[in-house]
Write a structure and sequence with these properties.
370 residues; alpha+beta; Jelly Rolls; seven-stranded antiparallel sheet; three-stranded antiparallel sheet; 15 strands; 28% helix; binds 2-oxoglutaric acid; Phytanoyl-CoA dioxygenase domain-containing protein 1-like protein; Phytyl_CoA_dOase-like
Length: 370
C-alpha cells in the first residue's frame, strides 16, 4: 500500500481528476415531481416522500412479505451452490459445505478459498427472482412518485456478499455517482437497498449522511479503500463540500427483513463492518427516467418498466441482458492481456480512472483506461 500526494500540474493548480466538477444540480434531488393522481398500492406516505427529497433517504418498513422475498433467497442459495461446485471441480476446495445454510455457507467457502465472496460478487447474473423484484408493481408505484411516469431500471445493480469480518465487502462512505460517469450528476437515480435478513448494526447495516444531497454536488472521492476496489469519501470532505454535520447527520439505519432503504445517487452512504456470525445478504437496485443519460460510460442501457406513452407488458430483458456489464468492465478496463483466470479476484472498472488513486492495491494496479 502506498500513498501519493495530490500531484500538481502547472504552477500551484492541483490536478483535476475526471470525476471532479464545479457545477451543482440541487433541484433534481430536492424537488418532488408532480404526484400521480391515483392512489396505488405500496406508495410512500407524504411524510416518507418529503423525507426522501428533504433529507436524501427514507426507510420503508414491512413492505415485502417473506413469501415475496423467498425466491430471491433461493436464488442466492443456488448461486452459492454453483460457486461451490465450480471451486470443487477446479480442485480449489476439498469439501462443498452443503450442510450449511444461506447465512453460513459462503463464509465456509471463504475460509476454504479466500476471495469466494468476491468471486460471487464478480460473476453475478440476475436471476428471474431478482428481475421480478426489480419490476415489482408496488416498488414501481413508489418509483413513479420519485421519478415521474417514466421509470426504467438503471443498469447498475449488486447482490452484496457481506460475509463476517471481511474487508473486501466493507464499503466506505461514497456517493453512487462517484462510480458512474459525470452524465449521472444532474439527475435522480433512486436506489432501493433491500436486505435478505434483519440488517442490524452488528451485521453491517447501512449508514447515510442525512442532507448530504442538498448541495446537488458530487464531492471529491479517492481510490481505493484498503484492499478493495471501492471509491471513498473522507468525512472532512463531506463536511466541507456537502455541509454534512458529522455529529448530527450520520444516521445508522437497522432495517428488518421485509423493509428497505431508499436513497439517491448523491446521498453519501456506507455500510458498517459485519461483526456477526451471519452473512448480511442484500441487493441494491436502481431506477431512473429513461429520458436521462444512463451515466454508465455507454457500456449498457437500462430497461424500461413504465412509460406514459405506452403500456409495457413485459420489460425487454433480452435486450438488457445482451450486455454483460461486469464482463465488459473486466475486458475493457483490465490491463491483463491473457485470458481471464475464472478464479481471479481482481475487480477493476471505469470509476478507478475518475479519482486520485491514493492507495494502490491489486485492483488499482490492474486498471487501464478503457
Ligand atoms: O450493501 C452495502 O454494503 C453497501 C451498498 C451500497 O453502497 C450501495 O447500495 O450503493
Amino acid at each position: 500500500m502506498s500513498t501519493n500526494k495530490k500531484r500538481k500540474v502547472s504552477g500551484e493548480k492541483p490536478q483535476r481528476f475526471p470525476g471532479e466538477v464545479d457545477d451543482v444540480h440541487p433541484l433534481p434531488f430536492i424537488t418532488m415531481p408532480p404526484q400521480p393522481k391515483e392512489k396505488k398500492p405500496g406508495q410512500l406516505s407524504e411524510k416518507q416522500l418529503k423525507q426522501y427529497f428533504d433529507e436524501g433517504y427514507t426507510v420503508v418498513e414491512d413492505f415485502f412479505t417473506p413469501e415475496e422475498l423467498q425466491p430471491c433467497r433461493d436464488s442466492i442459495s443456488q448461486m452459492v451452490d454453483n460457486l461451490a461446485d465450480k471451486l470443487h471441480q477446479a480442485g480449489k476446495i476439498t469439501e462443498k459445505f452443503e450442510e450449511y445454510g444461506l447465512f453460513q455457507r459462503l463464509t465456509k467457502l471463504e475460509e476454504a478459498y479466500p476471495g469466494s465472496n468476491i468471486l460471487l460478487f464478480k460473476s453475478q447474473k440476475m436471476p428471474k427472482s431478482f428481475q421480478n423484484l426489480w419490476c415489482n408493481e408496488r416498488l414501481l408505484n413508489i418509483m413513479e412518485q420519485i421519478l415521474g411516469p417514466e421509470v426504467a431500471g438503471h443498469p447498475v445493480w449488486n447482490l452484496r456478499t457481506k460475509t463476517p469480518n471481511s474487508r473486501a465487502v466493507d464499503i466506505p462512505w461514497h456517493q453512487d455517482s462517484a462510480y458512474f460517469s459525470n452524465e449521472s450528476y444532474d439527475h435522480m437515480i433512486a436506489t432501493a437497498w433491500i436486505p435478505f435478513l434483519d440488517a442490524t448494526e452488528e451485521n453491517g447495516c447501512m449508514q447515510v449522511a442525512r442532507n448530504g444531497h442538498r448541495k446537488g454536488k458530487v464531492a471529491t472521492h479517492q481510490c481505493c479503500a484498503g484492499p478493495t476496489w471501492y471509491v471513498m469519501l473522507e468525512e472532512e470532505e463531506m463536511k466541507k463540500t456537502l455541509d454534512v454535520d458529522i455529529e448530527k447527520d450520520i444516521l445508522t439505519l437497522p432495517i428488518k427483513y421485509g423493509g428497505f432503504l431508499l436513497f439517491n445517487n448523491i446521498t453519501p452512504h456506507r455500510s458498517l463492518m459485519n461483526y456477526s456470525n451471519e452473512i448480511r445478504w442484500s441487493v441494491d437496485l436502481r431506477w431512473q427516467s429513461p429520458k436521462h443519460h444512463w451515466g454508465f460510460y455507454d457500456i449498457g442501457e437500462g430497461v424500461l418498466f413504465r412509460s406514459a406513452e405506452k403500456e409495457i407488458k413485459e420489460p425487454d430483458w433480452e435486450k438488457f441482458f445482451s450486455v454483460d456489464r461486469k464482463e465488459i468492465w473486466q475486458k475493457k478496463y483490465f490491463a491483463q492481456k491473457d485470458e481471464m483466470d475464472p478464479f481471479d479476484t481482481t475487480i477493476t472498472g471505469p470509476w478507478i480512472g475518475r479519482w486520485e488513486v491514493v492507495n494502490h492495491n491489486k485492483h488499482t494496479d490492474a486498471f487501464k483506461p478503457g
